[in-house]
Amino acid sequence: MATRVAVDALGGDHAPGEILAGAVAAASETIAPVLFGRADLDPHGLELIACGDLIAMHEKPAEAVRAKPDSTLARAVRAVGDGEADAVVSAGNTGAMLAASLLHVRRLPGVLRPGIAIVIPGRRGPTVLIDAGANADARPEHLLQFAHMGTVFAQEMLDVRDPSVRLLSIGEEPEKGNQLTLDAHALLAQADGLRFEGNAEGRTLLDGDSDVVVCDGFTGNVALKTLEGTIRSVLEALRTEIRSSLTGRLGGLLVRPAARGLRSRLDPDTYGGGYLLGLKGLVVIAHGSSSHVAIANAIRMAARGVEHRLVERLAERLPSTRADSAE
Predict the structure, then answer these.
(1) Phi, psi of 177 (to 5 degrees)
(2) I need a surface site. Which of 12, 193, 215, 272 has the fewest CB within 10 A?
């Protein structure tokens, strides 16, 4: 039976055109994208669930989710919570995706905060960055749990047998960082079941020295967007230089295969988005500016998570922890 992936057709800067094109590209015998969009949307043969509203990027997340239960985002997320879809993908309002997921999908028992896990293509291998934007404010115990979730993710999805874990900070020394990183470092260093190898600096994220890098969502989102912007700027500058002269164009013919491989490996569209880990269902958050290529890859990524039973593995293997009474 094909994996049903609910797709928010009106979420993102380039909706619905790029979302629809991505869903059509991802559709296969094993993946069945289900579009949640306006009734007049041409689904190009895909299943369409008609919705009467949408949540814009600028809207306040929690308020919008409560006020617009018939929005494409809320309906798509609710389909997972109700068991009508196996996973959900949206390039819409990230905060609204988090709020809707907490309301309709809910957290796994013992999970304090869900975290966004993004795969960064490192030189020596991929790195899982968690949290990449779900929690702008976090406590040390949240980062400890992110480390456990990232470890399970690396084992199940990246086939890393014994993942190494590092804490993103401003220096490798244990005494470097703000109070959050200092306290989190102490918890991580004492934790059972983690191969904690100390701090990591932002300049090493693309080296692939660590299998899992942990941070709060504010820091992780800034780091991620800085990396993505830098990669795109460097690749575009390289293309411009190659085209600027005859010598450059001739040299470009020689390096074209390698350049294409590098672009494919580093381009954020290759991964499509990030998993919102710690929920009872599979939720994938794509970039707001996602192209159809990114959306197609995000849908495939959601299907792989279902295939690998990622939610079930997290539920089985996360260390038990107290409920967070402050939530």
Answers:
(1) 125, 175
(2) 193
User: CA 105, 107, 113: angle at the middle one, nearest 5?
Assistant: 130
How many domains are contained in the chain? 2
**Would you state the torsion angle of the CA atoms of residues 267, 271, 277, 281, taken in this order, to the nearest 10 degrees?**
150
Q: What is the mean pLDDT of residues 24-34?
A: 97
The Cα 50–Cα 34 span in angstroms is 11
The structure's pTM equals 0.89
Residue range(s) defining the domain that contains residue 61: 1-111+278-306
Measured between alpha carbons, how far is 222 from 244 in angstroms, rounded to an integer? 32
Contact 75, 85 (CB under 8 A): no
* CATH code, 216: 3.40.718.10
Asked, for residue 180, whether it belongs to a domain, the answer is yes
Tokens of residue 202, six digits: 């932002």
Residue 312 lies in a domain: no
Residues 45 and 95 in one domain: yes
Q: What is the 3-state secondary structure (H, E, C) of 235-288?
A: HHHHHHHHHCCHHHHHHHHHHHHHHHHHHHHHCHHHCCEEEEECECCEEEEECC
pLDDT (tens digit per residue) in 97-143: 999 999 999 999 999 999 999 998 878 888 999 999 999 999 999 99
Whether residues 64 and 207 share a domain: the answer is no
Residue pLDDT, tens place only, 272-312 = 789 999 999 999 999 998 999 999 999 999 999 999 999 99
Helix (H) or strand (E) holding 8: strand 3-8
Strands 212-214 and 87-90: unpaired
